[in-house]
Amino acid sequence: MDKKERIRDLIDQINELNYHYYTLDKPLISDGEYDKLYDELKNLEEETGIVDKFSPTQRVGGVILDKFEKHYHISRLYSQDKSQNYEDLKEWINRCERLRQNYNNTHEDKLKKLEFITEYKFDGLTINLTYNDGVLQTAATRGNGIVGENVLEQVLTISSIPTKIDEKSLIEVQAEAVMPLSSLKKYNEENEVPLKNARNAAAGAIRNLDTSQTKKRNLKAYFYQIPTNELSFETEEEMLKFLEKQKLPVYPYYNLIDNFDDLVKEIERIKVQRHKIDILTDGVVIKINDIKTQKVLGYTNKFPRWSIAFKYDPEEYTTILEDVLWNVGRTGKVTPSAIVKPVDFSGVTVRRATLNNYDDIERKKLRIGSKVFIRRSNDVIPEILGVVDENQKNTKKIEKPSRCPFCNSELIEGNVHIYCPNSISCTPQLKARLVHFASREAMDIDGLSERTAELFIKNLNINEIYDLYDIGYEDLIKLESFKEKKTNNLLNAIENSKECDLSNFTYAIGIPNVGVKTANDLANKFRTFNNLRNAKEDELIEIEDIGEKTASYIIDFFNDHNISKSIDILLSKGIKIKEIDKGIKSDLLKNKNIVITGSIDNYKRNDLKKLIENNLGNVTSSVSKNTDLVLCGQKPGSKRDKAIELGIEILESEDLLDFIEKLEENYE
């Protein structure tokens, strides 16, 4: 695999991992494994100079779920740069000091000597609250940093959060929603289905549509940042005291430190102290205290340069490997999952651990009955590091399966993985394919969950993807938990999916090595599905980031007789794939930064965004001095006021519609 293709592969892998971690709150691997992939990608990007705008190194992470309304943050919310050793921390301090000195060498208004403020790094779910005229207006998750999920009703169940404050100006305040460990313990004692850990419990509660369930988890929130405000603070400490004055809960610990040695002492002290508090914490957040210095240092595309999180080493324990179960995924890949003797990690009982493949088992010399090192990084699925003693008495070899554990088909060997070739009637494969096909990035069939897919396979004789489009009202209404409203909603979602973009359909059919970005590239290159399915290798490798390996996967996929037949049947069910226009992009908006605010009749925000980008404009989320134009629809909110204040051109009413019409005329 060449470097360009490896970058593409890593981007797809990490984006998938980010989706499970940030959106579904169901991490697939340990943080240690994730960091290795992330660091490999970052190093390759630096080495080759290839940095894709969809790369996770350029994003905060996170996809918006359709079950909540979208909320556009007034100011972008950033992620947190991380350090796990004192060498990295020292390097960060030195970098901040160099930037401070460079500024002081060229400016009369000197920056103060660096002083740091330390806070606990709690492990929960970030929420962003907006107060205006002293009243709580909105509450949202961070999402991708620009757009989050509206969770106001869920946040209102957190009794410590005030609905009114004394401050009357418009402010956004950022907090971490957490479930105290004592609440987690009590909940698990009183409920049949225990919660796995405090972080997932908090995230799941905030994302639960049933607010009575949110309330049951007895969440707390601790505030630590004000992304948007019309106020003026000189220090981070002053800002925290302002939050306290507004009765917005601030955890009763923060400390001012002005040198590296004392920072190390404080980090070591908290390392011990954190096990004595009732909130799950995995590190220390260190910020420059002086606000002016923060503004001068600014931000990268992902992190504030003036802040870093020092994360403690993952906890490791020993336990016994009791069994290995084999699971089958969407592509037929058969992967092992370790069952271990229950071990307690900071109040969370762990019974499973991740294994990559049979080579991983052999490399780590694992056997049934082995005493193993197990590590749990930042509350994600634990990993087995290896055996404690290679002299393993009273243990049993882990046999490599030769037949599928679900359909009994003979397995075939890949490079490092084994596969079940029975894509027709192997239930786990079909279930995973159905869920993938229905996902938001694919055909966007809202309501087709894993549980629903299981019901379809078991009760409706669904054997192929195309069978979805033969399901009727009488089929659904008899299924468990399906009432009239749910039935009609799912039927409507299935029907609406028949009209789809080429990129969505390309991703939905599950071509190996083709993620969302590659599907979009293929759609833009070939413009029709017929062109794509008849593509030649030399045409495919003309696309940036598609190498010979991926090209061969695509060609083999469409040349497979069974797959081709299934696609033809699927298309015969009324699927209408929108072709991509052959128009040449207009440069009418070249290098222009444009903000969209409010709702505009007959235009979806994504459609407007594409239209602006097709005219070489750039859509941004917030109004600033760099904004060239603001498009104002109905109920525009504070962005219109900010544009007036900064003297930025605003288009609304008839002028706005004329402008959109002109954009459409220029893209023909």
Give a summary of the structure in a few sentences.
One of its GO terms (biological process) is DNA replication. This protein is an alpha+beta fold. The protein has 24 helices and 24 strands.
Topology:
Blueprint: H1 3-23, H2 31-48, E1 70-72, E2 82-83, H3 86-106, E3 116-122, E4 125-132, E5 135-141, E6 147-149, H4 152-155, E7 171-178, H5 181-190, H6 198-206, H7 211-216, E8 220-228, H8 236-245, E9 255-257, H9 260-273, E10 281-288, H10 291-297, E11 307-311, E12 315-328, E13 333-345, E14 348-354, H11 358-363, E15 371-376, E16 383-387, E17 412-413, E18 418-419, H12 427-438, H13 450-459, H14 473-477, H15 484-496, E19 499-501, H16 502-508, H17 516-526, H18 529-533, H19 537-540, H20 548-559, H21 561-572, E20 576-578, E21 593-597, H22 605-614, E22 618-620, E23 629-632, H23 638-646, E24 649-652, H24 653-666
Parallel strand pairs: 2-11, 19-20, 21-22, 21-23, 23-24
Antiparallel strand pairs: 1-6, 3-9, 3-10, 4-5, 4-7, 7-8, 10-11, 12-13, 12-15, 13-14, 13-18, 15-16, 17-18
Helix pairs in contact: 1-2, 12-13, 16-17
Report what the structure shows.
This protein is α+β, with helices and mostly antiparallel strands and 668 residues long. It is 37% helix and 20% strand. The protein has 24 helices and 24 strands. A hairpin with a 4-residue loop joins β12 (315-328) and β13 (333-345). α1 (3-23) packs antiparallel against α2 (31-48), α12 (427-438) packs across α13 and α16 (502-508) crosses α17. The longest helix is centred in the N-terminal third of the chain and has 21 residues, at 3-23. It starts with a helix and ends with a helix. The relative contact order is 0.08. Its EC number is 6.5.1.2. Belongs to the NAD-dependent DNA ligase family. LigA subfamily.
